[in-house]
Design brief:
- The structure holds 2 protein chains of 2 kinds.
- By secondary structure, chain A is an alpha+beta fold.
- Helices cover 37% and strands 25% of the residues of chain A.
- By secondary structure, chain B is α/β, with parallel strands linked by helices.
- Chain B contains 9 helices and 14 strands.
- Chain B has a 7-stranded mixed β-sheet, with helices on both faces. Chain B has a 7-stranded mixed β-sheet with strand order 9-8-11-10-12-13-14, with helices on both faces.
- Chain B is globular, with a radius of gyration of 19 Å.
- The two termini of chain B are 28 Å apart.
- The chains are: A alpha+beta, B alpha/beta.
Chain lengths: 388, 303
């Protein structure tokens, strides 16, 4: 669950992290007013989209005053922003942040994420700011300082000082730096972040430490206790089918192939995509109906797959454990009747109550192909998609 | 022989009276597992389908000698449940619960590091020693007692692999589902170590998926161990796009890291055979076993 920059900054301010004042705007009028409210001087108009690389893509502009803020706002709002992170289709900018500008003396990089290999959160810092951290990591891993900390104890002051010295944030900046780094680590834990990045963290010419940009992603599993952030999630950049799947609690990712996949379990769902590709087809999606999917959920899953006009054939691959094959088969039959399956359907069932499941499919009178194993299923569905 | 659970294991169920807990406790019992206690705070002193219920894990352990805990407690309370079992000295905790926040998983790991408790999961199907003891939600009947150790991050993909083995007449020593979350208690490496040390395991079949570096670490460990036990692997997610969470919270390629290609290369480099198709998981390990006289040539016949 990704937050916009303005949302991330709001969340960070509550932890005492210094940011520049600003206002989120959806119209050019609002941009002008925001610039006026900020004192009428130099402002920055920044596209609010869930992707990095906004500056190079033309989504961040300086404006000399309210009139120019209005003009720049009008240009950015509604534009299709295409950056390496958005993919070739880009995203439409619906909101901008109009924020005060400042004189930058130095820029650094700091972020907090989860280090899976040790099971601890890790603070990462790099002297070079405003950069793509992956590029730095590839070029010179020693340039990134990493400090692990415990979730309950947070970042110790001495750990924060180590990082401050590594970034050369000494003298009068030391106190501010320690406080800011500790606040970031506290925010990471208390707001259940999966990523919290301040890039750049800048030192202004008048000696203040400011989070000039902020990126925050929240752990999907923590939505129940981060209710305000979950409620504020902007899903407008998500494709409508993805949004629908999310509402139904189905794990669905659209891909660019022609073979729709309906599978139970994430690992088997990935493996099913892989075997389709292995035999020369292209998966149209990842879809995990989950362990205990009901007839209704299977029906909805079919509707989601069929909403993709590229789908030329569907492969259902179910290993019934908890989910019984006969229940799944009833779901397939009901869904096919309700929505009128217009594309070839290949079904591979195995596991609990498989004989009853196969019988239900055979007696349904539906035009579907039953496959005996995963290879058979993949070959049949690839052939069907090519024939259609 | 087996690892971690066996016919004398005594299971307690945390969250016994919830729908999932009650259903799966009954299934485990039907498989022959000794389910000796349930723990549900506030319901101590009652029984649930013949299983005595206790208020605390500490009391359940004291009165029943339980040595494995199976956790079905909902996500907001699951971390606390795992820590309660660890505090009570339960040596093995199997956490089935899906959807626990990663920060809580970090807390669990930090807490467990100070105890002698091993955690399997969270978000996992559990562990089974075929014919002896089932602690989890896997369908028992697909398994067959034998000598192949199976370890995987995923549920149904493990069932698929087990099914392929059993259909070829090849049984399993123990099957461990380590779970699909970013922070889990038992890693691929931990499972490999257990199987390598187990005299009842002849060969190891490992399933991994995109995200993290658990498979790479396991590959390095396998190579360094110098074991003669053959190992085969399958990595799911070769077709997954970067930056998208593929169902499992841990299955995500981030910053260009954790791709299937990298993992397969690391496994091959360590001398582990890699199945390119998920349909070939069983035959990939069986080819190695047949070569070494660990399985009959007939196990490679078409089924």
């Amino acid at each position: 669950m990704k937050l916009h920059e303005y949302q991330a900054k709001d969340a960070l301010r509550a932890f005492g992290v210094a940011t520049l004042p600003g206002a989120v705007c959806t119209t050019a009028d609002e941009c002008e007013k925001a610039a006026k409210d900020l004192g009428g001087g130099l402002v920055v108009v920044k596209a609010q989209v869930h992707a990095g690389g906004r500056g190079k893509a033309g989504g961040v502009k300086l404006a000399a005053g309210p009139a120019e803020a209005r003009e720049k706002g009008a240009k950015i709002l509604g534009m299709k922003l295409v950056s390496p992170q958005t993919g070739p289709d880009g995203v439409i900018v619906r909101k901008v942040l109009v924020t005060a500008a400042c004189d930058i003396a130095r820029e650094h990089y700091v972020a907090v994420t989860l280090d899976r290999s040790v099971g601890l959160p890790v603070l990462m810092a790099c002297k070079e700011g405003g950069v793509e951290i992956e590029e730095v990591a590839a070029r010179d891993p020693s340039a990134i300082r990493k400090v692990h900390f415990r979730a309950d104890e947070g970042l110790a002051a001495f750990q924060a000082r180590q990082v401050a010295f590594a970034l050369d944030l000494t003298g009068p900046l030391m106190g501010q730096t320690v406080a800011l780094l500790q606040a970031l680590c506290r925010a990471f834990v208390q707001r259940d972040c999966s990523l919290l990045e301040v890039n750049p963290l800048c030192v202004t010419k008048d000696g203040k430490l400011v989070a000039l940009d902020a990126k925050m992603a929240i752990d999907e599993n923590a939505g129940y206790r981060q209710k305000d952030l979950a409620a504020a999630e902007d899903r407008s950049e998500m494709d409508p089918t993805e949004q629908r799947a999310k509402e139904l609690d189905l794990a669905y990712i659209p891909l660019d192939g022609t073979i729709g996949c309906l599978v139970n379990g994430a690992g088997l769902a990935m493996a099913t995509m892989d075997i389709v590709k292995h035999h020369g087809g292209g998966p149209a999606n990842f879809l995990d109906v989950g362990g205990g999917a009901s007839k209704e959920k299977v029906t909805e899953a079919f509707k989601i797959i069929l909403a993709d006009p590229q789908v030329k054939a569907i492969l259902v691959n179910i290993f019934g454990g908890i989910m019984k094959c006969d229940v799944l088969a009833e779901g397939v039959v009901a869904a096919a009747r309700e929505i009128g399956m217009k594309v070839p359907l290949v079904v591979r069932l195995e596991g609990t109550n498989v004989e009853r499941g196969r019988q239900i499919l055979a007696e349904s009178g539906l035009r579907l192909t039953v496959a005996k194993d995963m290879t058979d299923a993949a070959l049949k569905v690839v052939a069907a998609a090519k024939g259609a | 022989m087996s690892v971690l659970v066996h016919k004398n294991s005594r299971i307690l169920v945390q969250g016994l009276t919830g729908s999932a807990g009650a259903f799966h406790a009954a299934q485990c019992k039907a498989y022959g597992t000794q389910v000796v206690a349930g723990v549900v705070p506030g319901k101590g002193g009652t029984t649930h389908e013949g299983i005595p219920v206790f208020d605390t894990v500490e009391k359940a352990v004291r009165e029943t000698g339980a040595d494995v805990s199976m956790v079905f407690v909902p996500p907001p309370f699951a971390a606390d449940a795992v820590m309660e079992s660890a505090d009570a000295g339960v040596p093995l905790v199997v956490c089935i619960t899906e959807g626990i926040p990663a920060v809580d998983e970090v807390r669990i790991k930090t807490f467990l590091d100070r105890t002698r408790t091993r955690l399997i999961g969270p978000n996992c199907p559990g562990i089974i020693t075929p014919g002896e003891c089932k602690v989890g939600i896997m369908p028992g009947y697909i398994h067959k007692p034998g000598r192949v150790g199976v370890v995987s991050r995923s549920g149904t993909l493990t069932y698929e692999a087990v099914w392929q083995l059993s259909a070829r007449g090849v049984g399993q020593s123990t099957c461990i589902g380590i779970g699909g979350d970013p922070v889990v208690g038992t890693s691929h490496t931990d499972a490999l170590r257990l199987f390598i040390d187990d005299p009842g395991t002849d060969a190891i079949l490992m399933m991994g998926e995109i995200g993290g570096t658990s498979e790479e670490s396991a590959a390095a460990f396998y190579k360094a161990s110098g074991t003669r036990k053959p190992c085969a692997a399958f990595i799911a997610g070769a077709t997954a796009p970067p930056g998208k969470r593929m169902g499992h919270a841990g299955a995500i390629i981030s910053g260009g890291k954790g791709t299937a290609a990298e993992k397969k290369a690391a496994l091959r480099e360590a001398g582990i055979a890699v199945a390119e198709s998920p349909a070939d998981m069983a035959v990939t390990i069986l080819r190695l076993m047949v070569d070494r006289g660990l399985a009959p040539a007939s196990s490679l016949d078409p089924v």
